[in-house]
Amino acid sequence: MSRSYVFDAGFIALYFAGREDTRKYVDEIYEKTSKAYICEINLAEFLYNYARVFGWEAALVKNKLLRNSPIEIIGVNEDLTLSTAKIKLKYYEKLSLADCYLVALAKKLKATILTTDSTLRDIEEIKVKYFKI
Predict the structure, then answer these.
(1) Is the dihedral of CA 4, 108, 119, 123 positive or negative?
(2) 38-58 per-position pLDDT tens digit
(3) What is the DSSP letter of 83?
(4) Closest-CA residue to 73 (of 23, 12, 13, 14)
(5) What is the DSSP letter of 31?
(6) Which of 18, 46, 80, 119 is the 20 to 30 A CA-CA neighbour of 89?
(7) CB neighbours of 50 closer than 8 A, spacing ≥ 6?
(8) Can you give the C-alpha Rg of the chain in angstroms?
């Protein structure tokens, strides 16, 4: 695989909203030319935001769709939690805890974050592809 991505909640929302510029990344995952990951924390963030707009049942459909996709969903464990805490300590004023999990996972996997969060562009230790809303 040539590339690895970590999806943020906002990126997934854009994809499901039909944003054309997100399609090529998801296509790469299905074509197996790239690998994608999402942390359970960021998936929860997507699901509650999606449910606020479309309802809980619709969010459950998206949850099932994502869990049956080639996107690897990464659970929380001690290693990821400790890395996240260290990042949160460094970027306390700048990043949410969910964003810190995203950054920690991207660092661990040496992956590029796909996000709609402009604050992540300023984090030097990761690669970020920003999608403007």
Answers:
(1) negative
(2) 999 999 999 999 999 999 999
(3) H
(4) 12
(5) T
(6) 46
(7) 13, 16, 58, 59, 62
(8) 14
C-alpha to C-alpha distances, 18 to 41, 44, 74, 96, nearest whole angstrom:
23, 20, 25, 26
Q: Which helix (H) or strand (E) holds 128?
A: strand 127-130
Name the residue among 55, 26, 49 with its Cα closest to residue 38: 26
Q: What is the pLDDT of residues 106-119, one digit of tens each?
A: 999 999 999 999 99
Question: Is residue 35 within 8 Å of residue 1, measured between CB atoms?
Answer: yes
Contact between residue 54 and residue 20 where contact means Cβ atoms under 8 Å apart: no
- How many CB atoms are closer than 10 A to CB 77? 8
93 phi and psi, to 5 degrees? Answer: -80, -20
The amino acid sitting at 22 is: T
pTM, rounded to two decimals = 0.94
Which one, of 21, 32, 133, 89, lies nearest residue 103 by Cα?
A: 89
